Amino acid sequence: MKKIGIFIFCCFIAIPHLLASEESLFNDKLTQGEHQRLEKGQIVIRNISDIELACLDQGKSTQSDKLLNMTQDLNPNYLAEVIYTLPYQGNETFLDQIETILADISLYTEILYDPNEDGDGVPLFPKVQPTGLFTNGNELHITSLLCMNPFDEYDSELVLERTDNSLLFYQLNLGKIQYKNIKLVSKQNMLAGISVFRYNDYWVVYAQGGVRALKLPFLRKKLEAAFINRIKDFASFYIKKVAIYR
Q: Rounded to 5 degrees, what angle do the CA atoms 63, 125, 242 make?
């Protein structure tokens, strides 16, 4: 299933710019400054308070639509998005490569969480214990027991769904997430998802993560930072892996 908004474009003068086309992939929620940063290959992280502020609309791909619908149903109070694109030409096997990376749950232990955003990260999941694996049609399901400090251990499910030109990867908590016996997140109320699809001459990786958590006014800022930063670090890890191995 850090972040959430990235673009890396390999641009050539002879290739029309995706964002300048009449059928722009993204809506006007993405600012001109964010467009410019994406064009330069910089990561754009967008904390958004509502799914209506997402920079990707419905109708771009079946898999991204499913992710947007899942987030809509979740109705999170903490939400972020991350985007990455690369040219299709020269990267025809990209979907196979990212599928292999996303299906490898052992990589979870390599994901670093940077709570202070100072480059000094700690393992996001210091403990990952797979508990089950099964397939359902074109879906791969992996269940596991996760430790995400400082929270108590919880059960989780990873789902990877593949078609010819797209895939959807998402993670849901199957058990409640607690801190010192205080329930902060009910089961299936924390979602981290990554959709990958082809759009014209580009591969697009669009990630979204959201949490519907207990609202505690005196802890609001701390909880927002804790969950949003974890979501961003989770998504960024996989996008950076893809950039390295492509």
A: 45
Under 8 Å between Cβ of 132 and 158: no
Distance separating alpha carbons of residues 36 and 45, to the nearest angstrom: 13
**Distance between CA atoms of 133 and 13, rounded to whole angstroms?**
47
pLDDT in tens, 81-134: 988 888 888 889 989 989 999 999 999 999 998 877 777 789 999 999 999 999
d(CA 217, CA 135): 42
How wide is the angle at C-alpha 167 spanned by C-alphas 232 and 243, nearest 5°? 50
In this prediction, residue 20 carries a pLDDT of 45
List of E strands, 12-68: 46-47
What's the rounded Cα separation, in Å, for the pair 73 and 157? 18
- Distance, in Å, from the CA atom of 200 to the CA atom of 165, rounded to the nearest integer, reads 12
Q: Residue 241 corresponds to which tokens in the numbers above?
A: 């892996």
Task: Please state the three-class secondary structure of 60-74 as a single string.
Answer: CCHHHHHHHHHHHHH
Q: What is the 3-state secondary structure (H, E, C) of 134-160?
A: EEECCEEEEEEEEECCCCCCEEEEEEE
What is d(CA 83, CA 102) in angstroms, rounded to the nearest whole number? 16
Tell me the one-letter amino acid at 188. Answer: Q
| 162 secondary structure, DSSP code | E
